[in-house]
Model the fold of this input.
Amino acid sequence: MGLRMHKDGYGAAKHRAKYRCPKANRKYGCFCEHPCSPAKYGRAVHIFTDDNPRLFNIPPRDSKAWKKEYDGRTSVERSNKREKEDYKLEYGRHRSTKMWYCRLYGIMMLQHLDAWETFQKSLG
Done:
């Protein structure tokens, strides 16, 4: 009928996602004029995610939750790039992790100052 299937869970043991007919529910069964399946439960489809688990992820890619999560991820990646490439975090030749963390904290302060300066310039 061209309707979008409803997600009806994930079977971790068999690595597959389950989708069911949008015109059917567990309690009352299918209530279509022309049912697409003889089963009382309605049409159910299993999609194996073992080949590509990123294809069917939680939250769904076309949702607002996905957009919010993805926006956060891209900002973190930009921050990581700034620390590693622009401020050359990995070029420090320190023997101890303590000195490496001191360098990282200094870089993070510089990032904060850069953001602060950009904000001040935007004000006028």
The first helix runs from residue 64 to 86. The helical segments are 64-86, 97-123. The radius of gyration is 25 Å.
